[in-house]
User: Fold this.
Amino acid sequence: MAKKNFYALKNTGQIYTSWAECQQALKQVTNPVFKGFVTKEEAEAFLLGKTEQKLPKESIFVDGSFGKEQQVVGGAFIHVKNEQIIFEQKVRDDRHLELIKLQNVGGELLATIYALKYAQAKGMTEVVICHDYQGIASWADGSWQAKTPVTKRYVAFVQKFKAETQAKLKFYKVAAHTGIRFNERADQLAKEACGLK
Assistant:
């Protein structure tokens, strides 16, 4: 899980850059409404009550899930163009222990790999992957070091995709569970892929 660097407290309208600082502020208010975020932009949007992000005209939303009981990871991707769903697909894996150990993150990686395979098959020259888990972008662009065999394979797959297709590949972070309908739909499909409701 990505490290939360910003803590937004609605009661004070302030953003704190450490959990200790946020805890001090929490002691000063009654019924605190707060949340931690990876980026300052997400924290600001939370304070302003904004849930809508301006989305690219064409993109592929990805999300992952984990079924603990069945020990299965699920993923889903949705191709969206001009606010319309063009295609959606669920994927699951109950065989590869490396993916299963990563739980939801394993599903996120699975979904992104299948999304890129889809983009390649469609001959897309510009691909925008909308994701809510930071590792999808950060492993791919090298800002996070891929340390496990499965994340190293993910990075290798992304590099191979770029080399073979010459497509412009961009990653676009969306805030999870904030009412972005395509992200919510991908989340729902990923859960279904695991046999969850």
About this structure: The chain is about 40% helix and 25% strand. Strands lie at 6-9, 14-16, 34-37, 58-67, 72-81, 84-93, 126-131, 168-173.
